[in-house]
Amino acid sequence: EEAWEQGRSIIAPRVIDDPRVQGFESLYRANISSLAILPLALSSTTMRGAVYLNNPRNLDHLAPPLGSAALVAYQNLLQLTIPRAIPVPA
After folding, report:
1. Could you tell me which residue, 42 or 77, shows the higher pLDDT?
2. Distance (Å, whole) CA 33 – CA 15
């Protein structure tokens, strides 16, 4: 919800320690221990999609402060490539 509804990225180097994603049983079943969710927006009010990065071992190198800049740059680049002519379903 935080990523999709509020447009905020979630970086969880250890999902087991992050209350934002602890309730997602599918992460544990899939043996995902680190996760980054990057929402992709067409505008401040229209979400187009989200990129999920996972690493079964560790995403510590993507944690703030250094990693968050790289992820924001990646997120911004992806948002530029989203086709804007295709209507978003209501």
Report:
1. 77
2. 5
